[in-house]
Amino acid sequence: MLDYESLKLIWWLLVGVLLVGFAIMDGHDMGVGTLLPFVAKDDTERRVLINTVGPHWDGNQVWFITGGGALFAAWPLVYATAFSGFYWAMLAVLWALFFRPVGFDYRSKISHPVWRKTWDWGLFIGGAVPPLIFGVAFGNLFQGVPFSFDDHLVSTYSGSFWGLLNPFALLTGVVSTAMITFHGAIYLAHRTQGEIQWRALRAAGFFGGLLVLSFAGAGVWLWLGIPGYVIQSAVDGSALPDPLAKTVVRQAGAWFANYRHQPATVALPVLAFAGVIGAQVLARRGRTLAAFWASALAIAGVIGTAGAALFPFVMPSSLDPRASLTVWDSVSSQRTLGIMLWATLIFMPIIIFYTGWAYRVMGGKVTAAYVRENSHSAY
Amino acid sequence: MVSEQLVDLSRMQFAATALYHFLFVPLTIGMVWLLVIMESVYVMTGKPLYKDMTRFWGKLFGINFALGVTTGITLEFQFGTNWAYYSHYVGDIFGAPLAIEGLMAFFLESTMIGLFFFGWDRLSRRQHLMVTLLMAFGTNLSALWILIANGWMQNPVGAEFSHITMRMELTDFWAVVFNPDAQAKFVHTVSAGYVTGAMFVLSISSWYLLRRRDVEFAKRSFGIAAAFGFAAVCSVIVLGDESGYTVGEAQQTKLAAMEAMWETQPAPAAFNLIAIPNEAEMKNDFAIEIPWVMGLIGTRSLDKQIPGIKEIKAKNRARIVSGIEAVTVLDALRRDPADQAARGRFDAHQADLGFGLLLKKYVSHFDQLTPGIIDQAVNDTIPRVAPMFWSFRLMVALGLVMLLLFGLALWHSVKGDFADKPWLLRAALYALPMPWIACEVGWFVAEYGRQPWTIHGVLPTHLSVSTLSVDNLYGSLAGFVGFYTVLLVVEMYLMIKFARQGPGSLGTGRYANEAHA
Asked: H-type helices in A160-266, by residue range?
């Protein structure tokens, strides 16, 4: 078995991989949901958009569910503290997600325009709200979250839902929403043609620009105005996890310390910018599949940038900094991390294999003719 | 101390959302195999009727599945949002089966369902059948991992407490996977799902037959449902999870409560067919007993005793007293982990730590303990008997009625005359809600019967909740009730609309009530 310290590091990477996987896979169908009321002009066009992700959204959503399960299994204290502390934010994500399964599956079953319009906005909410809230949550992680533990590790959160919606967090919410919507637009450019494809490319131009600006803006803001957290006591990566056994201080510029010490990590923000620009250029030259992967790399760059800045913190506490949750002291036991690593290594390649197969089977452009021919079975 | 109102509201929210989720799950679990059977016949015979059956029942399956997915996410979120201390305390064990469920089962099921609906023209017949089969495997594997997690709550094997990390930690993964409780639960629960799927198809087919429309379609569907349902209902009764009830202590308590067995009887114990349990005096005011039967069902033997409630309570009292020591020493150990004397005392009482924690419902410091409080905690260790007793009997009675119904349906479908037996068709139609009621009361018995614990003997329910305000709970509960009511109305509307329209909704031109493009 791997030593505990390595397992803790591997699981930090794996949680990151799952989050990036979620953003790439569930992200593109959420992006399509967000663009639905704007890129499509009539019901048939909206059905074209929906059917680009129709066979896949359900499988993609499992990235989210598995991510939640993996968080529970690998970082139980993070799962418990974040989900209960961000109570209303999590419920908002959950309730927004309610609109997706029923929106996708029920919308086309009745042709009344009010019915369809309702589910169009339902799919918009299910596409736009979760990335916005995840972005806002990330913004709050950088500022510290007001929670503490008693000596039996019962967590208490003393902030409010409205407190989460501070200006910096709203900016990171814009970063996240722009990123997911950009990704959805690039995906649409790949799966549609003609007028719809042209509109998708225009949307990609807008959201790509917004992503670059907001991402750079958040970086500058973080540099100038948001102090980071630093562990002052010695770190023993192989110790049994106890989040109260360390001392932590706030320090200006600390969120950039990892970039100073490991200059290679600067590649992550560079990847974010390069991915967005690359996706734009490739999509406009008609190389839409390559554009999709460039956009996926941009997502990995954006999420990686945030993760590398926070490391080893996952959820710093503004109320009691020593209670901050880190990759060293909020994790499961060595045995559980080992078993979960095996489970992931065995099943992830299988999942990627059959997901790829499903996309190949259902591949090609979705057109108005396809929707008309399959009006009883298509979404 | 945690407010009792917060605990009650958190429980209410979990119970409501879990029971609601389970309106959709059993139909998914069962119908997916009926789709596999119908499509297999199609691939073997090439008759388009069987393809239409797969597609039409698949359409209803899809309407149901959408809500199963929607409401399933709630449960995955809710451990974190509302049961934060639970999530911390047992996440090391409980999280893994949930994550593996995603990786091994739910990905497969959800990816294949897309191809099931959209892949008819893009896959060969065999490939499509393979997709349906993989979807069925995914669905049932998903149930397996969820029930492994749930089985661990009833019988927490393969784990031990660590005072450094202040939680339970995994010691034996395979013990958790092959937990006999989980295995018994899995067989019982998926069989109940198969009954539900079969009843759904049987009832709706009967309705078409009563109206004399789409007769051929309905007859074939009825026949498949009757055979599958009969096998399933036998399995659900014979492999009822009472077979696992003598394994763990949680199940013994549950068994005693649902049988209203106050005293330990000499083996083999008698079965109370009907009784009026009197909680205050710990006896039954009235009972019709059948000698031997309880001992046979509960232990599958003539000589093993089943402990009665009074005996269980006496044992629990001793464990609570020992648990007081465990909790007290734990606090000393938390202050100074190097204290070897405390360590020794803790090891001696650690097994009863959970029982000591039961007292935290009444006092936050043990210097305030009184004998009255200990009595209360002892009484808490047994769930209320009357609700257990009656809901269990309702479930069993429904199971027996369904056995009779599927038996008759199979008999007449072998004879080939069911279509001319309106009494049978009407009985099948009106029996539609039965499997759902049986499933829901079955879960009530399983989960209410585990109280006062979330993890039996390890973590009391009242300590498991998140530190939220009561207002938060009122707000979220109202939100769930609102959303779920609207969703149920929408789902039922679509389900009834398409069930009424029948296979004509496929637009193939072969059936009554053809859909217009």
From this structure: 161-164, 167-191, 194-225, 257-261
In the block, residue with structure tokens 């009967």: B206
CB burial string B150-186: b at 16+ within 10 A, e below: bbbbbbbbbbebebebbbbbbeebeebbebbbbbbbb
| B284 Cα to chain A: minimum distance (Å) | 42
Residues of B in contact with A361 (CB under 8 A): 115, 119, 122-123
Cβ contact B199:B439 at 8 Å: no
From residue B342, give the alpha-carbon distance in Å to each of A365, B347, B353, B356: 70, 9, 14, 16
Q: How far is A12 from chain B (nearest CA, A)?
A: 16
3 state SS for B429-473: HHCCCHHHHHHHHHHHHHHHCCCCEEECCCEEHHHHCCCCCHHHH
Q: Is the pLDDT of residue B241 over 90?
A: no
Kindly report the three-state secondary structure assignment for every residue of B3-64. Answer: CHHHHHHHHHHHHHHHHHHCCCHHHHHHHHHHHHHHHHHHHHHCCHHHHHHHHHHHHHHHHH
Amino acid letter for position B350: Q
| Residues of chain A neighbouring B120 (CB-CB closer than 8 A) | 377
- pLDDT attached to residue B482: 96
Q: For B426-465, what is each residue's pLDDT tens digit? A: 999 999 999 999 999 999 999 999 999 999 999 999 999 9
Q: State how far the Cα of B99 lies from the Cα of B107, in Å rounded to an integer.
A: 11
Q: Which amino acid is at A284?
A: R
Interchain pair A55, B70: CB under 8 A:
no
**Cα–Cα distances in angstroms (integers) from residue A353 to residues A179, A350, A358, A377, in the given order:** 26, 5, 9, 26
Max CA separation in chain A (angstroms): 67
Kindly report, residue by residue over B1-37, the tens digit of the pLDDT. 789 999 999 999 999 999 999 999 999 999 999 999 9
Q: Please check the confidence at residue B516 and state whether its pLDDT lies above 70.
A: no
Provide the pLDDT confidence category of residue B246 given band limits of 50, 70 and 90: low
Nearest Cα to Cα of residue A92 among A141, A11, A164, A148: A164
B151-173 average pLDDT score: 94
- B84 vs A80: CB contact, 8 Å cut-off? yes
Asked if B22 and B478 count as a contact pair (C-beta separation under 8 A), the reply is no
DSSP B104: I
The Cα A240–Cα A235 span in angstroms is: 12
pTM: 0.94
Do A69 and B98 count as a contact with CB atoms less than 8 A apart?
yes
Q: Do the chains contact at B108 and A354, CB–CB below 8 Å?
A: yes
Distance CA B164, CA A342 (A): 26
